[in-house]
Amino acid sequence: MTGKRPLTLQKRVTITDIALDIESVYIYVPNKIAPVIFAVAFAASGAFHFWQCHHYKCFKLMVLHLLCCLMFTVGFALREYGAFHHSFNKPDLYTYIASTSLIYMAPPLLELANYHILGRILYYIPYHSPIHPGRVLTTFGLLSTLVEVLNALGISYIANPNLPESLIKLGHILMKLSLIAQILVITAFYLLAAIFHQRCYKSGIRPRTITRPLLTLYTSTFLILVRCIYRIVEHFGASTVRSSSADLASLSPILRHESFFYVFEATLMLLNAFLWNWLHPRRYLPVLSNVYLAQDGETELEGPGWEDRRPFLVTLCDPFGWFDSSKQKERPFWENNGFAQSSV
């Protein structure tokens, strides 16, 4: 049993002086050139990322960037097909759902990639890390997984106009929750990175190997944050529209004009992909995570690595080690390296 199609009309209306058949999955005339440009651009960035991963031997560190470039490439390729085939028949509808899902599910994964890179930076200067470096990926990864589940469910409901109206509304609610949660996680990420950065600055450790990746992280996360705010504004506007409404001109410009999508979604995420191509973290960080910077800020040493012997679930619940009674019994390995540590 199917519900009402959103914004359906049995006549033609005019939006931005272009006649549009409302028997379409889009409420605007989809651009037929932009998807090709972005598909090619993301494919080029992904190919460059692949070469960089091979050159710098960092597939594990940057695999999410490769995956997201692939998702964007396929998503925009499908969107190009959908620009010519956007009726409500099943092949066109499935193409629209696949395209929308791939494009909208990639940014949270890029956010997760940033958490991985921050953890790698914390391994490099472990004595100033506010949290076990390995817990950055697991803790924030768990939060991102919850966000991604809400995001995926919301997209799957919203992108299918043949679902009952109640499920479409539920999809908007899930998307709102995922986007708001994403902003909260980004805020926590910024706070963690800022505490670490402040400790490094205060102790006089300011090499390019740390400042460049951190500034790149701040910029990348800001691009994702702006995109997230745009999506929140879009969804809060879309969820207030009645599916039977025929007055498309009364909709928010963000919904009626595809250009907003290409500026705040496609362009921002493409800039993020190019940003990491340009300022690749392996240009500054060592290959191995057990190589760290000594307290003099110049010498690189190979340590035993930073282990957390607590059960995995305990580390998830207590990533800062506040309730670890055994941590005071063991002296951190960096305190035995012969370098005097500056006061934090």
From TrEMBL:
Membrane topology summary: Multi-pass membrane protein
* UniProt keyword terms in alphabetical order: Membrane, Transmembrane, Transmembrane helix
TM stretches of this protein: 33-51, 58-78, 93-115, 136-158, 170-193, 214-233, 260-279
Q: Looking at the UniProt record for this protein, which Gene Ontology cellular component terms does it annotate, in alphabetical order? A: membrane
Q: Which residues form a coiled coil?
A: none
The cellular location(s) given in this protein's UniProt record come to: Membrane
Q: Which InterPro entries match?
A: RTA1
Q: Record's superkingdom?
A: Eukaryota
Q: What is this protein called?
A: RTA1 like protein-domain-containing protein
Organism for this UniProt entry: Aspergillus coremiiformis
> What are the top taxonomic ranks of the organism?
Eukaryota, Fungi, Dikarya, Ascomycota, Pezizomycotina
